[in-house]
Amino acid sequence: MVAKQYNILLNRYRRFFITVLAVLLISFLVICVGLLNLLPSFGFLNSGSIIYHKINLNNFSGVPRVPVVESQLPAPRNDRCNYFDCFNVYKCGHKGSGKILVFVYPVKEYVDHKGNAVAPMSKEFFGILQAVVKSRYYTPNPEEACLFVPSIDTLNQNRFNVKKTSQALSMLPMWHNGENHLIWNMLPGSPPTFSNVVELNIGNAVIAGAGFDSWTYRAGFDVSLPVYSPYADQLKFDPYQEREWLLLSSQVNIHPDFESELAQIESDNSDLFMLLEPCEGRENASLRCHQQKIYNYPQILGSGKFCLVIRGARLAQPNLMDALAFGCVPIVAADTMILPFADVIDWNRAVLTLRESDLNNVMTLVKDVSEERTKQMSAHCQWLYNKYFSSIESITITTLDIINDRIFPQNARSYSPGNSPLKPYTPQSPLYLQLTAPKAPGFTAVVLTYDRVESLFLLVQKLVKVPSLNKVLVVWNNQHKSPPPSSSWPKVSKPIKVIQTKENKLSNRFYPYEEIETEAVLHIDDDIVMLTADELEFGYEVWREFPDRIVGFPSRTHVWDNSTQKWKYESEWTNHISMVLTGAAFHHKYWNYMYTTSMPGDIKEWVDNHMNCEDIAMNFLVSNITNKAPIKVAPRKKFKCPECVNNEMLSADLSHMMERSRCIDRFSAVYGLMPLRTVEFRADPVLYKDAFPQKLKINNNIGSL
Amino acid sequence: MQAKKRYLLVLSCAFLAYCYFGGYRLKNESNLTSPHRMLPSYVDVLSDHLYIRDIESSPQFRRIGSSTYKKVNNSYRNCRMETCFDYRKCHSDFKVYVYPLNDEMNGETPLTPSPAYQKVLDVILESRYYTSDPSQACLFVLAIDTLDRDSHSSDYVRNVQSRLHRLKLWNNGRNHVVFNLYSGTWPDYVEDDLGFDTGEAILAKASMSMSSFRPGFDISIPLFFKSHPERGGDAGFVTSNNFPVTKRYLLAFKGKRYLYGIGSETRNALYHLHNDRDVVLVTTCRHGKTWKERKDQRCDEDNAEFDRYDYDLLLQNSTFCLVPRGRRLGSFRFLEALQAGCVPVLLSNGLQMPFSEVIDWNKALIMADERLLLQVPEIVRSIPATKVFALRQQTQVLWDRYFSSVEKIVFTTLEIIRERLPLQRKRDGIIWNNSPGALLTFPEFSDFWPHYPFHIAPAAAADDNFTAVVYCQLGAPLTPSSTLFRLIKNVAKSQHVSKILVAWNSDKPLPPHSRWPPLPGHVSFHVLQESSEPLIAQRFFPHPLLKSAAILSLDEDALLNTDEIDFAFQVWKSFPERIVGYPARSHYWDDAKGSWGYTSKWTNDYSIVLTGAAFYHRYYNYLYTEWLSPLLLKTVQQSHNCEDILINFLVSHVTRRPPIKVTQRKQYKEQPPGNSLRSPWNDPDHFIQRQTCLNTFAAVFGYMPLLRSNMRLDPVLFKDPVSNLRKKYRQIELVGS
């Protein structure tokens, strides 16, 4: 009794202490989190003993006011600048960072003698600064910076005092005539001339600006920006909206000459072209009218296939962004304009350009575009918008990326990947050179073996009879036993190299060993002794014609089982093949490298843990990248079920098949699709089975069982 | 009870602490967003963008007049297509006029252009761009040799200015394109100094700098040797695509060093990087007449090192090749490295890269900065193996498609200009930078790239049907037992055929409608009978009735059963860019005659698949008719033969791959019964003619594009010892050979 009570007490106490401990732990954690929140920007230590503080963009109330000193106007924009003359590259690449480092000047409010702000900060410019500070390029240390961003808002030339802002810029401590400074601008020029470049006196500074023409844009030096749309937050595309109009014009700030031209086109094509105009008597920028009907801008863009973007007072127009966002393919009529991010964006895939004087031909232009192309371009427009233009932050980061690519061109992106959202443009196979591989180097046979020495020796003796064999590489996967001494190996004419592995892993078979000196690798199991020298030689010949594929002997296929809703592995005699087992197959050494370094998901680990399906994994990998099926060579052979670990019992065989079906299911889940491709052909010698004198044929000994 | 109270206490403490700190964080966050919210937008929709009328001057005026850019100091440094080019001349077709050589009437000695310029003129004269009527021309090319404008050179033509003045069509250079390799001379090598005023002409010039290049107007071309082949061109050196690219040397250069003057600094500093192991950069000062007088203390040492290395071996055994600027910005080393597949490392600050309007050079080379010369080895070492592998392959693609001959360089120049014209479809970067390249991709065919044979993923081949075209030359009577009748019946039995076209090219009368075999509903049947032109010219005509991507081309006496047709179609879908068919032939080099030979013997390999029974892509009809040199088509027309060889040339030229032969059938023609009908195939002259064709084609192409294959594709279970019932293509097995 006592003992029982004691037990209850003990239990209660135990429970109590555990709870207290838990509570204490939780509260401690909460306190820690809270404390960390308290210390968001205490600065961090940089080189030497100087502590640089991350710029504070959170509080504008205490911003120092700096009067702009009346001084001589600084040097005007140097229009002969290029990257090599005006950009000081020695400031970049400090400490092997391999990327540009960008410093942002602390925010100050520059005022004129009356106390009025010279260049008041806008929401968008604040966004740019914020994006720079958050980016991987930011540094708080001006000493190591390569690029300097003044925090003076120069986005819209109408909003700042040109002369005073120029003077304010020249007051910056590291200005040096604008060297390595980046000036942001989206609306250059002012009435009535509307220059195509911001008219600040900025010496050698780089301009990230919108609306450059090909005279003001200094290629390789400036960055061309989009005009950020004031409707950016309303650009939500409704994919179900029907594109009923072939062509839309919704711009309202164009020249009367253009307007009359457009009106003429509309009267000739009133069923295809809708010309939207401002609504009479309503001062509302987001309404458009057409024949007394009122439409909402920018949503109306979703109902057009093509949208006109015409030069207004300035070259660049924000409705380019609106049209992109709605997938309405822009037709840009602004002669000599540099399109945004022209360095990295291949605009021919997303917009049509038209000379201003050809505006009356616009219907011919759009009617010439096929339906498929229109859809493709439209999708590409939306993709471009989402990738590069959808926010101030992505515009800012892309700008910095472009500058970074100029300074570190060896790491620069090329245009295809950055511009390839669509399936018909799937990345090319990395082995894309159209070449029949040369015969002379031959192939390297890689044999993964554990302890079947007898069969291995037999195989080696068979292999060396193949004329194009270059070398035999034996991968000894047994850590408990060392490979047989060299004296016991068969005496052969070709080099044999044995590699002792550290771990018994299946992926050792596909390791890109340095000892493989040829392009072609023959992977062969140590018990595949039934292939003749002619067959192997012919297999190599076929591989030479398809060096990007797996070319081999035992083939398998996959089928969709409708009853279980799963993939099934099939080794029966079928009319199709989608896999060639690496128990006896040639492939390019590059695939070994890809298998080892770039296998998606956890497939490689899974294969190593389960000691199975490495051949299926390889077929998935190659087909996924090349989008091509493997090639089976020569008629079917009686392989001793090469993929069976032990083939004594039928049940073991069955479970083995189940396991491999599971592999296919698992791998296709990792890829998110079924990369295998099915074909109905195999490769034979040209004269195979022809009634023709044997002595005139090559590769005779093919097809015996 | 006490315990409970204690819990409560601790819990509430924790809660309070959390509220305190969490609340602080919230406060912090609101602080963070507030300035953002309060700030005004950079643009006022009403006043900055919208609802103001444009300023007064008309767009035309603002485009051309208001800019002070057009003319500066009476030179045309600021020309653009919009300001210095007359589009009105180009509204119909893009034609190029070449001035005749003997245009000058003033008794001045007729000029003979240098061999290099003669090549430029020749390729245009023999091309489809050429027109002899200047009123039809959009673009004009001078007969005056402007390639070498170095006044010290022997090819320098004097009095160009006055010669130009005498040309009636010169029009201050408007719509002209001026080809140039060298401008300026010692000691300044002034880039703009061509010794005459080019006016409003487009410059297609080598060694252009970014600062004098007029974007969208001029075209930067590569510097090429006078001996550069006119057409065809040598293949790239890369024959083995091994991975990783491991060469004996990492970085190599062998070339002149200038002791002083423009362009000398970079090359003079190269010895700092030379390590004699994997970085081999050797220079010599031994050039020019006066080198001994000017030589510096390094010269002897350099020369000795220079002599130790062989340039060709360096090119072949180095992964990267340095291409430093010469006196001018360009260098011959550039094309040499590109051809050798030695990834160029450019050291030429301010060089406008050749054809940079369309070619993405980041995929084929490394741009280095002369200012950071000493970092070059480190940069090159840092490039991952996979990227080197890709760069190297891309050098070969670009070399092969745009640079290997004068013809390709000139055509690329013309195509770039053509794309700028209004209402011309533009090819995007993907087309330009992938095989087979823009010179073989005609946007008039389709603006949707998956319609071309090269860009489809085989699995997603656009449509699952084909059009059969039966080419009838003999005109044998059509009876239910005749070959033609059986052939059409067999074709119609295929599930994939959508249309059968009979091209009737015989003097025999066309059989009446009732005599043709009855066809299933989904197959439409058409007969083409054009008497005006010999039909051999029409065989590969892109007829509007041909809509499907796949075309099955058949001769009237072809023997094929439905399984054979279906199987060949399945194979073709995996190789839409190649010719896939039955009758195979091969070519060989006849050493005794020193010419190409043609054989129809049964051999272990083949290089031609005859279009008597073959599938191919519709796009090749277009290329055949619209792209092939008129010379080739004339050969076919005159000999009334060889059109099937020519299309094999064309397809192999485009794909750089051999055709594909499927299954066993060798004898694909019915043996003519008796001698009542003489098939041209039994004619020995016919065979000799084909041999002649082969050699003519190789000469016009400039090389032999045909490639050999020694495999054929059979159904997976072909002649395997399994029950016939398991096999999908059973009839194929019945075919004897």
UniProtKB/TrEMBL annotation, chain A:
One of its GO terms (biological process) is heparan sulfate proteoglycan biosynthetic process. Its cofactor is Mn(2+). It is found in: Endoplasmic reticulum membrane; Golgi apparatus membrane. Gene3D superfamilies: Spore Coat Polysaccharide Biosynthesis Protein SpsA, Chain A (3.90.550.10). Pfam families: Exostosin_GT47, Glyco_transf_64. Signal peptide: none annotated. GO terms for cellular component: endoplasmic reticulum membrane; Golgi membrane. It is an enzyme of class 2 (transferase). It comes from the Eukaryota. The chain crosses the membrane at residues 16-39. It is a single-pass type II membrane protein. Keywords: Disulfide bond, Endoplasmic reticulum, Glycoprotein, Glycosyltransferase, Golgi apparatus, Manganese, Membrane, Metal-binding, Signal-anchor, Transferase, Transmembrane, Transmembrane helix. GO terms for molecular function: glucuronosyl-N-acetylglucosaminyl-proteoglycan 4-alpha-N-acetylglucosaminyltransferase activity; glucuronosyltransferase activity; metal ion binding. Residues 443-688 form the Glycosyl transferase domain. Pathway: Protein modification; protein glycosylation. Belongs to the glycosyltransferase 47 family. This is Exostosin-2. It comes from Laodelphax striatellus.
From TrEMBL, chain B:
One of its GO terms (biological process) is heparan sulfate proteoglycan biosynthetic process. Its main location: endoplasmic reticulum. One of its GO terms (cellular component) is endoplasmic reticulum membrane. Gene3D superfamilies: Spore Coat Polysaccharide Biosynthesis Protein SpsA, Chain A. Keywords: Disulfide bond, Endoplasmic reticulum, Glycoprotein, Glycosyltransferase, Membrane, Signal-anchor, Transferase, Transmembrane, Transmembrane helix. The keyword Plastid does not apply. Pathway: Protein modification; protein glycosylation. It is a single-pass type II membrane protein. Residues 478-718 form the Glycosyl transferase domain. GO terms for molecular function: glycosyltransferase activity. Residues 662-681 are annotated as: Disordered. It comes from the Eukaryota. It holds the Pfam family Glyco_transf_64. Residues 92-383 form the Exostosin GT47 domain. The keyword Membrane applies. It is found in: Endoplasmic reticulum membrane. Belongs to the glycosyltransferase 47 family. This is Exostosin GT47 domain-containing protein. It comes from Laodelphax striatellus.
